[in-house]
Design a protein that fits this description.
CATH superfamily of one domain: P-loop containing nucleotide triphosphate hydrolases
Structural class: alpha/beta
Bound molecules: adenosine-5'-triphosphate
Radius of gyration: 23 Å
Shape: globular
Length: 689
């Protein structure tokens, strides 16, 4: 369903989703970001409608005013709507956090008035589509037009409000599909960025983000909590692995062969790892040998440990000293990933594997108080897990020095190098102090690696980097049973409810194309008495984390998500993925369905294929399905045949996945279709809040 269709449908019914305006939520204490923004923004008129709309369906609790009030309202809504994601604990945390913030202002670090909280979110300016959008958005940065709220008005008609104006050009009809997270612009007072790069504009205008994420549990059981590998874990051994590049060290077959130090080995055992996955067997010795690496392996097959373990082993071997309080920290390792939730997850893995060592991992990401990020860093930082925008902010504020960097990891590397994040990554490697690629080890991991992105990656990697391909590059995980149903846009909701009722309480992620639609579908499911929460880029970080928590805990077994949740998230027991809307790119499809069927467990993915809008995907879908030995519906083959475009490679219609290292020359094609960096006209507004 297109956005227009949806708005036409939802708007007349809005009042029925919108509970009575609860005024007290807008009159909170202590400089809450909404209060500030509301006072000056013409977006105010639309906000209550939208927020209530969101809240009416499922736990929302935007960071408005009095947090306790917000929480109690949320509970009220929750019970009214049949129990969606109340998240009591968040209320409590929010309260204590806000007190912490108060204390903080007189603490050792004081935020300057022009701190640019979450500016990365505001300035998600680099369009993945490049061209006009990039120019438009950069232009808006220069004119300070980006410092609106992250909360768009529902109708998006634009009334002079900065964010709406921005949406009008940047996202209203389709920011780049699938660009999920914060990008772009460091802008602290000491930013090394030039004015033209958008480093300074509007810093003083944006509302501050005050959210401080609750600290993760510290007890050992929680740190090492893990889920069981599935019945197909041993089948990983049958997947073909290809290593290309010169002088690759041999693979190892066991953890013992890696010769890791005792503490690391103990942590691996406590994490429940007894056997290496293929990507680990090949990547660990390569990284231990000091080589640069581009590794591509199916979703859920243990890529995170594949880079964390050898990095930690090196650090231990090199006698990394416990980092201590310093205003400028110089970490040995930076790990970047495209979404906040993913960097947080990587951080938790790093914390787990470094448990009992003197290596300190820190995580920073947008949507949280910048001061909080800085406080985490100055206490000591050996491994920094970060989203790009927040990272550049912190570097700009001279809290992080890059001189000691020995490892630079790009997780979801194809996303990190595409038009969305690529410019930011280039800036990172050319930051003052950043060791050249010859002096550092650069590691890239993903389940998909489009050919053109591989070429871009060469700029980051030493020329003798190794390329590991586990199975087919860009292939779907075979443990996911894929079904494609032909469903027209107006039948989708009915079909969704039918499927969810059959599924019962099993955990299910429902992917939709736009943030608005995520709200709408979540609300709709709530009304159908299906416990649902949602995650997308218009939700406050507090809400996003609460939604994920409610989904993880099973409190809300259905999570409606945009592409922000497509990559990397490792959630136990997700048995189903439903593509209510198909993404525009086949690699996005592969990542989305990879939220189930992880680590040898089986899962199911059902996709609604609407011939009105999804025909461009028919051909690559057929390929992905048949490569993963799935049934291909005859009707899909027919569509694929009728829309067949010979010679995709090199055509303007987009490139394809390389089945091999592109350095081998012209790669063979394994999947026709659009890669993420060359998507067709997108409809998703995910990236442009
Ligand atoms: N050797 C192993 N033994 C048991 N469990 C493992 C092993 N390696 C990884 N895991 C677990 O498998 C799950 C998936 O791992 P991870 O998230 O690193 O996958 P991934 O390949 O990065 O997936 P994605 O492509 O979706 O990002 C995690 O819960 C992780 O702890």
């Amino acid at each position: 369903m297109g956005d227009e269709d949806w708005e036409a449908e939802i708007n007349p019914h809005m009042s029925s989703y919108v509970p009575i305006f609860e005024k007290d939520r807008y009159s909170g204490e202590n400089g809450d970001n909404f209060n500030r923004a509301a006072a000056s923004s013409s977006e105010m008129d639309d906000r209550p409608r939208r927020d209530h709309f969101v809240k009416s369906g499922f736990a929302s609790g935007r960071n408005f005013g009095n947090r306790d009030a917000g929480e109690s309202n949320k509970r009220g809504n929750t019970s009214a709507m049949g129990g969606f994601g109340a998240g009591k604990s968040f209320g409590n945390r929010g309260f204590s956090n806000s007190r912490f913030e108060d204390g903080d202002s007189s603490g050792f670090w004081r935020e300057s008035s022009n701190d640019c909280e979450d500016n990365q979110t505001r300035n998600r300016g680099f369009s993945k589509r490049g061209g006009n959008e990039l120019d438009q958005d950069e232009c808006m940065q220069r004119t300070g037009g980006l410092f609106g709220s992250r909360r768009p008005a529902l109708s998006g008609t634009g009334n002079g409000d900065t964010s709406q104006s921005r949406r009008g050009s940047g996202s209203g009809r389709g920011g780049y599909k699938g660009l999920n997270e914060e990008v772009i612009t460091g802008s602290g007072k000491n930013s090394w960025k030039s004015e033209a790069e958008g480093g300074e504009s509007g810093d003083t205008q944006g509302p501050k983000v005050t959210y401080i994420p609750p600290p993760p549990p510290e007890d050992e059981d929680s740190i090492f909590a893990h889920y069981q590998t599935g019945i197909n874990f041993d089948k990983y051994d049958t997947i073909l692995v290809e290593v290309s590049g010169h002088d690759a060290p041999p693979a190892i077959l066991t953890f013992e062969e890696a010769n890791l130090c005792q503490t690391l080995s103990n942590n691996i055992a406590k994490a429940g790892y007894t056997k290496l996955t293929p990507v680990q067997k090949y990547s660990i010795p390569i990284i231990l040998a000091g080589r640069d690496l581009m590794a591509c392996a199916q979703t859920g097959s243990g890529k995170t440990a594949a880079f964390l373990l050898p990095i930690l082993a090196h650090m231990m071997r090199d006698g990394v000293t416990a980092s201590r309080f310093k205003e400028l920290q110089e970490p040995e390792c930076i790990i970047v990933a495209p979404t906040r939730e993913l960097v947080n997850q990587i951080y938790l893995e790093a914390r787990k594997f470094s448990f009992g060592t003197c290596v300190r991992a820190v995580v920073i990401y947008g949507g949280t108080q910048l001061g909080h990020s800085i406080r985490q860093i100055v206490q000591g930082c050996n491994i920094l897990c970060a989203t790009p925008g927040r990272l550049m902010d912190i570097i700009g504020k001279e809290k992080i020095g890059l001189k000691q960097i020995k490892y630079l990891v790009l997780d979801e590397a194809d996303r990190m190098l595409d038009m969305g994040f690529g410019p930011e990554m280039k800036k990172l490697i050319s930051c003052p102090g950043m060791p050249s690629k010859e002096q550092r080890q650069t590691l890239m991991f993903s389940a998909t690696f489009p050919e053109e992105i591989q070429r871009l990656a060469a700029e980051f990697l030493k020329s003798n980097y190794l390329f590991v391909a586990v199975g087919q590059v860009g292939g779907a995980c075979r443990d996911v049973q894929q079904t494609v149903l032909q469903v027209g846009q107006f039948s989708k909701r009915e079909k969704l409810v039918e499927i969810l009722r059959n599924i019962g309480d099993e955990r299910t992620m429902v992917f939709v194309e736009t943030k608005k639609k995520a709200d709408f579908i979540a609300t709709f499911l709530c009304q159908e008495k299906i416990s649902t929460t949602s995650i997308h880029g218009d939700r406050e970080q507090r809400e996003r984390e609460q939604a994920l928590g409610d989904f993880r805990s099973g409190k809300c077994p259905v999570l409606v998500a945009t592409s922000v949740a497509a990559r990397g998230l490792d959630i136990e027991n997700v048995q189903h993925v439903i593509n209510f809307d198909l993404p525009s790119t086949i690699d996005e499809y592969v990542h989305r369905i990879g939220r189930t069927g992880r680590c040898g467990n089986t899962g199911r993915a059902i996709s609604f294929f609407d011939p009105e809008s999804d025909n461009h995907l028919a051909q690559p879908l057929v390929k992905v399905l048949s490569d993963a030995q799935q049934d291909v519906p005859a009707w899909l083959e027919e569509i694929a045949f009728s829309t067949y475009i010979p010679g995709f490679s090199g055509s303007t219609r987009g490139s394809v996945f390389a089945s091999v290292d592109t350095r081998k020359g012209k790669s063979t094609l394994n999947t026709a279709g659009f890669s993420s960096s060359q998507a067709p006209n997108p409809v998703d507004d995910e990236s442009w809040d």
